[in-house]
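Entry:
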Amino acid sequence: MNDKFKWMVFTGTLIGALFITGCTKHEDKVHDSWVTPPAGSVIDDTALTANIRSALRADPNVKNLDVKIEARNGEVMLGGLVDNQTQMDRVIMLAWMAEGIKKVDNKMSLKSAGAAAKDG
């Protein structure tokens, strides 16, 4: 009977320890790279637009595109026509790289898609 009691105490202790370790916060289990970074300084919308426009002008693949940039509270909407998907992806990437960006809304279109719509 003494061995049976020891096994019950051991099993109860083990189960209790597992429950306690399972009760940690979800945030404690998330890898550092998946956690949203703490809010930094807020970037003015005008400065955010200027930073993105500057990045686009500095990139030889997209510097000649007429991309419209509208910023509001760190959220940016991109508009205009691009020649191909690679240029569109590049513009979006450069916008996401801007400091203070919270969201990028892509409203750009491919020039070839516009021509196909007119022919149809």
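The chain has two domains: 2-34, 45-119.
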